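$ run holo --ligand "guanosine-5'-triphosphate" --emit tokens
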Amino acid sequence: MVQPSFRCGFAIIVGPPNAGKSTLMNELLDYKLSIVTPKPQTTRKKITGIYHRDDCQIVFLDTPGIMQPQQKLHVSMLAIVRETLKDADVVIALIPYSGKGDHIDRTFTDELFKEWIRPAGKPVVAVLNKCDLVTETQRREIEDYVKQTWSPDAMISISALQGTSLPELVDTIVPFLPSGPPLYPEDTLSTAPERFFVTEIIREKIFLQYGKEVPYSAEVVIDEFREQHEADPSRKDLIRCSVIVERDTQKQILIGQKGASLKKLGQAARRDIEEMLGRPVFLELFVKVRPDWRKKNNLLKSYGY
Ligand SMILES: Nc1nc2c(ncn2[C@@H]2O[C@H](COP(=O)(O)OP(=O)(O)OP(=O)(O)O)[C@@H](O)[C@H]2O)c(=O)[nH]1
Ligand SMILES: [Mg+2]
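-- output --
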């Protein structure tokens, strides 16, 4: 029986790249759903993660970081944020402490509120993340400043990485959700299909394994996902993926000397994919060059942007 006081709704997480949006969602779900790397602009699409508690269900929407667009891919990523804002009951404005200088980026936060949050017309919870990087006194000063400058409907400091104040964050969000029964069964973690998370895991390993240029130029698509274990449990599933890059030089870097780098990438990705699926798989990676795909509408569209 669902209690009459049960609340359920959508909470969008927005903020600059590298703020810890994906880390926060994963910590709340206690499951690594969204990919996380030290590099900015890791997340490129909306990732839905469903949080369950006795008195509420919160559908968290992790989004790409807000930045100045430098190419069509960025424009598409920002359009995803705009669209997702429309679905939200409450906005989680994730503003990271930096541990240096002013401790938060005041110019960016101003723009975030003016250009993105206020126009959406939704209640906003300012969540100051990475509080492990500042002292208690610095935290209080910044909290006062944020409260006075942007007047959020609620505010809390947390550390997503260390799991500090996360139950309190949920308590802060719940009053902004509509009353109503849960939208999803209790064992549902996300609405996206397994194949989407397979491509995300490969992208994460690319971000972690390669330097600056390759991760930003790479996209992953599934060419074939053959679920052979269903017919015969002794057979592994076969997953064939293409890693798309923009130039031949990037292809060479991805593959490495005698294919060593690509092999290492495949092994790292396969381990995580097997853990997610809970069964062994064959993973085959092919590298393809699609010149300037990040600037081409037709290619972006075919990759889901
Ligand atoms: N010190 C500290 N680091 C954190 C915290 N939360 C996240 N990080 C780190 O910040 C980096 C970026 O984290 P992500 O979760 O990928 O950030 P994001 O906002 O999703 O970034 P994009 O997807 O690129 O927009 C990672 O190296 C995290 O480990 C925190 O509370 N404290
Ligand atoms: Mg992210």
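-- notes --
The chain has ten helices and nine strands.
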